Amino acid sequence: MADKMALAKAINESLRRALESDPKVLIMGEDVGKLGGVFRVTDGLQKDFGESRVIDTPLAESGIVGTAIGLALRGYRPVVEIQFDGFVFPAYDQIVTQLAKMHARSLGKVKLPVVVRIPYGGGIGAVEHHSESPEALFAHVAGLKVVSPSNASDAYWMMQQAIQSDDPVIFFEPKRRYWDKGEVNAEAIPGPLHKAQVVREGTDLTLAAYGPMVKLCQEVADAAAEEGKNLEVLDLRSVSPIDFDSIQASVEKTRRLVVVHEAPVFFGSGAEIAARITERSFYHLEAPVLRVGGYHAPYPPARLEEEYLPNLDRVLDAVDRSLAY
User: Fold this and answer.
1) Which pLDDT tens digit goes with each residue over 46-58?
2) Residue whose C-alpha is closest to residue 61's, from 92, 31, 25, 23
3) CA 210 to CA 261: how far, in whole Å?
4) Is 14 helix (H, G, I), strand (E, B) or coil?
5) With contact defined as beta carbons under 8 Å apart, do 231 and 260 qualify?
6) What InterPro entries has UniProt attached to this entry (predicted)?
7) What is the largest CA-CA distance in the chain?
8) pLDDT band at residue 175 under the 50/70/90 scheme
């Protein structure tokens, strides 16, 4: 039976199930216990599982991740929360020089099953350092898996799969979608963690996105349909690895591709997708791969963020430019 719940609640239920299923699963982070997290994603977990399983940490991101690495070496499966996206950088050294490389450094003998949860992206009117989209920085680092769900069902199941992974997973949670509700079937059999999903069939152009931008792309497809344009929407779900086979299959059907993400277009994940698909499907494309994202500038104050973030008109403009070729 499926239950309707918000994306944040789906993550909470997934963490609860993991804590119940495996005594080696631990949750750590700033205010994740008594407060239940800034967004209440971990609400009630410390009360039910105790302070030794759901641990309130000092304000020290490097220490949080470093401690999780040590725990993972001793057989635990830590799930750590970085309170906001912009706070992850004090822990960047631990993530890229230790967490990502230990498996290779030990010639496969050491596994580090650590999940790093990061609420990310804009759209909530937050202050500085609270609306970043740094996924490309982590996707560039070999040894890390990088994923981002767009809906409640994926949030539930992708968290389960991330915790069960023997490799470290950077789990980007689209904070502007925390309150969006969807059906979650806790008895379903999920698909592969890094498999993209077609969430809307189409024939004229493919919109590829992940995390917070999938809903926007569905709205764009609805608006385009009123003008007689039939757009396909592909939820990538994973930024590293990327399911290029699914993108290629969609593009070779529609012959056009627009990639949408909140992060800056410059050196963003859309650039890698554009390059790979151009290599793979050059003779199928009827227009260059276009990208829509943030600008190559520091994230602006809250009153200006709607000018910075991709919106319906900017994505529709890219669709029109692609179809004009």
Assistant:
1) 999 999 999 999 9
2) 92
3) 7
4) helix
5) no
6) THDP-binding (IPR029061), Transketo_C/PFOR_II (IPR009014), Transketolase-like_Pyr-bd (IPR005475), Transketolase_C (IPR033248)
7) 60
8) very high
